[in-house]
């Protein structure tokens, strides 16, 4: 994973996901995560850092997006691309999105947090409750009476 | 955040997912949404509902200007919230009973539009409660009651809000008691730098500006002038006069923005008019960046008769600092006058000239020789301009807004020149002589339009619609005006609907060939994001050939976002009433009525003006996220709602 970067003398950090897979990540990428930063400051840096709350496939996604995010900093086109990717992910696989979001939250990666939160916000914007339930596979857990009351109260919003 | 929770939900792939995210996280995501979307979330599931309830008690910014809610609905959305800083509300259905809900001590910014049913109590209560307010805007106060407003209420407002930096009172100021009016301003916040008022008599303004304050504590010296720190002043007055302009220039030495519009009800006489001598007094301190002088023709047909090129030349001499200039109703000014502005204002970015009936192509003759790079140009009703002027103007490759309404001589060749403007976002071509071929030229260089107005371009046919939406420049459109196109038919609208472009406003006034098919096509339009129905918030079908059949397509679940619908008045009255009952928050507009009432009533128009301003602002906000400068409503309202 580390070989793609062009910085020369970067330190490599080793991380282990909850399902036991080991990742080697450039320090600059790893330090995007405040969780890892804190762990390294606490001097666990020479060993493999365990990430008990993140599975390998999700961690792949996180690293991929961290890199993309670093690239896009001054590239408007890329920014757009990344935004539309978020929409696709939410449409095709809201479940993976939630896991990604959780992982980002757990790893405390500020830049990705903003990005993934914006994805969901953009996705939700202007959609009716029914459509959101359908797209994100959310169960309607209101009682019929509750629902009628809430709909009546909010119908102006999605009339 | 528990691993088990996430893995167990992953095993049941059909199960829920997004709602298992921590509620603080969800709330922070929801806080990025607009208020209607937040309310949609609340009705989705229990988790979201409780998230929203939480959110509403700490959200810092609550803006709801596109729909007028009742006090009961609003009360639920505005629980006690010590973090609320910004509140913007359409008060169309509210009255004094809602004041307690609106006047909150935590606020820094308060914007209330359509306050027709409120009394002066609103002002005094805001003054008492909102001590930290920095910015206040109140529109149409008490205009349903048409009673005078006690000046003491204004006094309480001005003395209470001691931190106020920006104040906008857009209602009939003459309803305050004239004698008391200037003195109450002695209490005004020392921090006030922006003031917008109107309608107000220009004599009241001069008295107000000349007001001096005697300090109660020693030393009893006379303080200069209450409002002397003002940097921005925007007024709608009865007459723009030399003495008004002179007083403003003399007293307000820090002014950077001056925006004056008048509405004469009689032909102005000599001391009550603007002359060359008055213009000469503008910008004595060389700080002015934005200047707008407009003579409104809503009450009588008039213009600045006493200003000619000489006046503009003298003004241009002292106005080299200007970045934006708007001149409306200077009918005697010719190419020489406007060219003197182009040559002396080396920082000019925005130029608007309305009713420049003497302007010819020579006005931009040596445009390329100036160092200017204009971004906004408006030339409404400059009838003599031809393609030559536009070709020369098109050397400003940074143009983002171009307003060529009612420049009758412009044809397809002009569009060929406009087609070379890559950054163009907003284009008005109302009443010009263009054809379908011209529209196709836009595709050559324009990257992404946001707003396009083709009102009254009578040669256009259905073909232009497919040209627009098959080109990349049209796929970003949000606002489209196709009114008064006699050849536009359902075929055109079908291709529009097929394109799936998520339009927000679509106007098709008086297109008689448009029928029910168009309504059905728009209602079932599939825009991005799997919307069933369309994203339209405004649909104007006044004077179209629609029948009873269309009505069931205006009901739920079609047009879920629709806020305003234009329909011919007296058209199936019972159906319209039934629709209004079914969708109480859909505003149904009958233009013939509105225009009939409004033509002589300036209040109506000030509201319309506000809408146009808002639209411009809104368009501009979307236009470029990085661009922070404000659009100062350089396109003023279109006073002719009816085509001539």
TrEMBL record, chain A:
Q: Looking at the keywords, is Glycoprotein present?
A: no
Isomerase among keywords: no
Cite the Pfam families for this sequence: Skp1 (PF01466), Skp1_POZ (PF03931)
Keyword annotations:
Ubl conjugation pathway
Q: In which pathway does it act?
A: Protein modification; protein ubiquitination
The processes (GO biological process) annotated in the record are:
jasmonic acid mediated signaling pathway; protein ubiquitination; ubiquitin-dependent protein catabolic process
Transmembrane ranges, per UniProt, are none
Q: Which domain of life is it from?
A: Eukaryota
Q: Which residues does the UniProt record annotate as the domain SKP1 component POZ?
A: 11-70
SUPFAM superfamilies named in the record? POZ domain, Skp1 dimerisation domain-like
Task: Outline the extent of the SKP1 component dimerisation domain.
Answer: 110-157
SMART domains, sorted: Skp1
Subunit details: Part of a SCF (SKP1-cullin-F-box) protein ligase complex.
Could you tell me what this protein does?
Involved in ubiquitination and subsequent proteasomal degradation of target proteins. Together with CUL1, RBX1 and a F-box protein, it forms a SCF E3 ubiquitin ligase complex. The functional specificity of this complex depends on the type of F-box protein. In the SCF complex, it serves as an adapter that links the F-box protein to CUL1.
Family, according to the entry, reads as follows:
Belongs to the SKP1 family.
- What name is this protein filed under? SKP1-like protein
| Organism for this UniProt entry | Cinnamomum micranthum f. kanehirae
Which lineage?
A: Eukaryota, Viridiplantae, Streptophyta, Embryophyta, Tracheophyta
UniProtKB/TrEMBL annotation, chain B:
Q: Which GO cellular component does the record give, naming just one?
A: SCF ubiquitin ligase complex
From the UniProt entry, list the residue stretches annotated as the region Disordered: 623-644
Q: Which GO terms describe its biological process?
A: SCF-dependent proteasomal ubiquitin-dependent protein catabolic process
Q: Where is the composition biased (Acidic residues)?
A: 624-644
Give the top-rank taxon of the lineage listed in the UniProt record for this protein. Answer: Eukaryota
Alphabetical list of InterPro entries matching this protein: F-box-like_dom_sf, F-box_dom, FBXL15_LRR, Leu-rich_rpt_Cys-con_subtyp, LRR_dom_sf
Q: Which intervals hold domain F-box? A: 21-61
Know the name of this protein?
Answer: F-box/LRR-repeat protein 10
Species, as recorded: Cinnamomum micranthum f. kanehirae
């Amino acid at each position: 994973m580390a070989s793609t970067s062009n910085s020369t003398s970067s330190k490599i950090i080793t991380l282990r996901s909850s399902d036991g897979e080991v990742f080697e990540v450039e320090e600059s990428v790893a330090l995007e995560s405040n969780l890892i930063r804190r762990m390294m400051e606490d001097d666990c840096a020479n060993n493999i850092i365990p990430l008990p709350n993140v599975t390998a496939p999700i961690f792949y996604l996180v690293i991929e997006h961290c890199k993309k995010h670093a690239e896009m900093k001054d590239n408007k086109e890329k920014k757009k691309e990344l935004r539309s990717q978020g929409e696709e992910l939410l449409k095709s696989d809201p479940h993976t999105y939630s896991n990604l979001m959780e992982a980002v939250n757990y790893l405390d990666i500020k830049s990705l947090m903003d990005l993934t939160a914006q994805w969901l916000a953009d996705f939700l914007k202007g959609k009716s409750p029914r459509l959101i339930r359908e797209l994100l596979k959310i169960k309607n857990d209101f009682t019929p009476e509750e629902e009628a009351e809430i709909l009546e109260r909010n119908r102006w919003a999605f009339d | 955040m528990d691993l088990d929770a996430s893995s167990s939900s992953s095993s049941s792939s059909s199960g829920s997912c997004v709602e298992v995210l921590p509620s603080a996280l969800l709330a922070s995501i929801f806080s990025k949404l607009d208020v209607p979307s937040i309310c949609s979330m609340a009705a989705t599931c229990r988790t979201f509902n409780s998230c929203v309830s939480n959110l509403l008690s700490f959200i810092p910014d609550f803006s709801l200007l596109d729909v007028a809610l009742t006090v009961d609905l609003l009360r639920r959305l505005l629980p006690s919230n010590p973090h609320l800083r910004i509140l913007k509300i359409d008060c169309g259905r509210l009255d004094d009973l809602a004041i307690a809900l609106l006047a909150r001590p935590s606020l820094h910014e308060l914007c209330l539009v359509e306050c027709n049913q409120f009394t002066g109590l609103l002002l005094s209560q805001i003054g008492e409660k909102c001590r930290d307010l920095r910015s206040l805007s109140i529109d149409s106060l008490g205009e349903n009651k048409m009673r005078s407003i006690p000046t003491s209420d204004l006094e309480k407002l001005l003395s209470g809000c001691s931190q106020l930096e920006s104040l906008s009172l857009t209602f009939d100021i003459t309803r305050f008691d004239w004698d008391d009016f200037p003195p109450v301003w002695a209490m005004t916040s020392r921090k006030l730098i922006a003031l917008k008022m109107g309608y107000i008599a220009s004599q009241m303004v001069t008295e107000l500006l000349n007001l001096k304050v005697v300090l109660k504590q020693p030393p009893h010296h006379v303080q200069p002038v209450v409002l002397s720190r003002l940097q921005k002043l925007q007024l709608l007055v009865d007459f723009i006069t030399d003495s008004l302009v002179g007083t403003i220039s003399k007293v307000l030495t820090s002014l950077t923005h001056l925006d004056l519009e008048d509405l004469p009800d009689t032909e102005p006489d000599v001391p009550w008019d603007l002359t060359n001598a008055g213009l000469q007094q503008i910008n004595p301190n060389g700080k002015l960046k934005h200047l707008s002088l407009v003579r409104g023709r809503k009450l009588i047909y008039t213009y600045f008769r006493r200003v000619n090129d000489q006046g503009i030349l003298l003004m241009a001499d002292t106005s080299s600092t200007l970045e934006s200039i708007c001149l409306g109703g200077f009918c005697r000014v010719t190419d020489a006058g406007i060219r003197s502005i182009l040559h002396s204002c080396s920082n000019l970015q925005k130029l608007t000239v309305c009713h420049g009936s003497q302007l010819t192509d020579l006005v931009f003759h040596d445009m390329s020789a100036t160092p200017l790079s204009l971004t906004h140009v408006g030339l409404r009703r400059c009838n003599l301009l031809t393609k030559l002027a536009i070709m020369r103007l098109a050397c400003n490759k940074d143009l983002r807004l171009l307003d060529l309404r009612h420049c009758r001589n412009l044809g397809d060749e002009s569009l060929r020149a406009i087609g070379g403007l890559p950054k163009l976002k907003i284009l008005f071509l109302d009443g010009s002589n263009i054809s379908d071929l011209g529209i196709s030229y836009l595709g050559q260089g324009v990257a992404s339009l946001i707003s396009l107005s083709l009102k009254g371009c009578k040669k256009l046919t259905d073909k232009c619609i497919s040209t627009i939406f098959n080109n990349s420049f049209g796929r970003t459109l949000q606002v489209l005006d196709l009114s008064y196109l006699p050849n536009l038919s359902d075929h055109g609208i079908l291709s529009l609907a097929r394109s799936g472009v998520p339009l927000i406003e679509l106007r098709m006034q008086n297109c008689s060939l448009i029928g029910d098919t168009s309504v059905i096509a728009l209602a079932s339009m599939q825009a991005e994001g799997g919307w069933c129905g369309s994203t339209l918030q405004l649909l104007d079908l006044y004077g179209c050939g629609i029948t009873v059949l269309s009505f069931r397509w205006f009901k739920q679940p079609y047009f879920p976002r629709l806020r305003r619908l234009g329909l011919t008045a007296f058209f199936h009255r019972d159906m319209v009433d039934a629709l209004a009952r079914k969708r109480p928050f859909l505003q149904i507009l009958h233009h013939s009525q509105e225009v009939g009432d409004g033509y002589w009533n300036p209040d109506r128009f000030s509201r319309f003006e506000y809408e146009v301003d808002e639209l411009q602002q809104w368009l501009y906000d979307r236009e470029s996220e990085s661009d922070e400068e404000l659009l100062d409503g350089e396109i003023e309202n279109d006073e002719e709602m009816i085509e001539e």
